[in-house]
Batch of 3 targets.
Target 1
Amino acid sequence: MADLKEETSVENTNPVEETVEQKKKPIDPTLEGIQLFYEKNKKLVNYVGGGLVVLIAVLVYFKLYYLPEQENEAANEMFWAESYFEKDSFALALRGGVMVMTADGQKPMLGFEQVADQYGMTKTGNLANYYAGVCYLRIGKFEQAIECLGKYDGKDEMIAPIAIGAIGDCHMELKRTDEALKYYLKASEKSHNGFTTPYFLKKAAFANEVKSNYTEALELYERIGKEFPKSSEAREIDREIARVKTLSGQ
């Protein structure tokens, strides 16, 4: 008996997986300018745009929240150093360390140096550099004073020229008359007013006298008398002019 073989066709029900490369959507040929650029660089534009949003958010937080908080902290910390500065306790004002009573309890006060270091991004921290420089000048540490005063970057009509002139005082104490003269003249030009301008013009005139530059000194003294007749430096300016004329043989 012959075996009957049934041919059975079996269909594979599992679909064959195929990797299909998705075609990019064609760019509308009518686009131009910014729209065309965006269509060609969508990923890059979205990436950069997202980064800019984050950067702007960080800058807004820094300017509107973080920096004002730091400013308030710096002002509170420097209050005590300023109080010692006003009492001519320059070493304490500079370095701090004294225990003081604050709203948060007793704590060691910060000196101008520490305020400048910890809050350097704030206006108060910047001002602390000026105070630290003056403290160093008053205790005879002239090189350190020059360094601190050089870090001060302000536009105040009075403090800015005084900071520059104080650097001149340091150089004068160190017998660097040429450097002192340069800073005195720079201080006199920083802010044109009836207080700091004649004050530093007179210091510049004296520096010229030290260098035996009597003609230049005379010009500065005469300028004080002509431009700032109501200043305190002008009260005895005629005597200074007469003296320098005698020295110069005029």
Note: Residues 42-86 form the longest helix (45 residues).
Target 2
Amino acid sequence: MQGKNMLVVSAHAADFVWRAGGTIAAYIRGGADVHVIVLSFGVRGESNDLWKQEGQSAENVERIRTEEASEAARILGLENVEYWDFEDYPMNITRERMDRLTVRIREIRPDIVITHDRRDAFNPDHEKVSQLVSQSCVMANSAGVMLNGLQATRQMSIFGFEPHQTEISDFKPGTIIDITETFEVKRQAMECFKAQKHLIEYYSMRARMRGNHAARISGNKEYRYAECFANFFPTVGRKFV
């Protein structure tokens, strides 16, 4: 992990924590440079509990979600987090926004990109962001796409978050990352999100289940908690690993 550059693109304020918080913390501890871009705060579609409060406003929901996400990022050890404040539900993907992300990819020059998988049965924002990120990576790699005088990037590895409705979204596990040493940090980060308290236990159970899969597949019984990702591209090398 030492010297690696990782970019995580999250559609909403909490997605990067629910789906990759343990992996992010592990890479930071391992010496990687991790950047997170949060495209929206999820004010319209990801904050139902907050909207149950009498007299609630969009401005107040955004304030709370910003504070939650910022505190969760601090707990994970993140120093590089950007909030782009797009409107959600639905999220509008424009050429201007694609160019903006392409520029950031060229500036960060990630070895690893993590974002939403291609399908999410109940969240079209996630599917749009998956497409935005994959297309922006292609443009960042293309020398003929000239933006701000930045050089084209090399092909990066791209991985997709495990969606909430895994089977319904036709998710195909590709890579399982052991987060046993960072699970408690992830749990603390998840506790920040009072607007989605119902997901804390769900993603704790999901981490235990994937930890069981990691131990069974690898034969390493020390694996207890894990996160799972889809592979956008096949693994390449001169030997099986």
Note: The chain has a mean pLDDT of 96.
Target 3
Amino acid sequence: MRDAKSTNLGEGDSLAKNMQRATLHPLAQFRAFVALREKGQGDEEIAAAFFVTPQLVKQRLKLAALSPTLLELYAEDEMSLEQPMDFTVNPDHERQVQVWEAIRSSWNKEPYQIRRMLTETSVRASARRAVFVDVEVCEAAGGTMLHDLFQGDDGGWLKPKQSRPKVGNGSKSRSTCLLATARVLGRLNGNPAPMTDDEGAAHAKLFAKYRTLKEEYEGQDQFPEEIDARPS
């Protein structure tokens, strides 16, 4: 009596042989890989059945997970194989379709342009801002990582969760990934806090002293050493 694993392996071998005999659209292979994965087969088992590498299996499974709209276009040969590859960098089906609609009539359908549009609300994981926030902290706060399985991506892209952080619970996952990494890692513009009466009086006193020294030594390149070293 064959166990479930042996049965699945036999199905994989049979499916691979049938596909080799027929001239099928590559999309059929993508879906065959998905069917075997759903039956519990791992990447290495699927790869062995089809005489391909586990990395290619990962790539095909990611292609099969694209928006059904894009897969239909690919099945009808309205997209080249390279174009679906570019869209796998972002799993958001709605965004995938939006980008396709934006570029389908454009002269610029280069891979870098598609990836740029699909990752424009993210930042490379190797960027100093992302390193400071800490990718693991951001993932724990609901952020996700985007990866390109077809080209080098320098560690991928960090996509913070777009939500309002709750205040008053410690670091709260580093303020929910530093305010969703400054709302997709943009620039933070701050306003100085107002000074207290004591701070304002101390500031006025120091500023008056500075003006006196500046007038006294006007025309010199710098204050004398004994003046420069004097404590406030």
Note: Strands lie at 123-124, 144-146, 157-159.
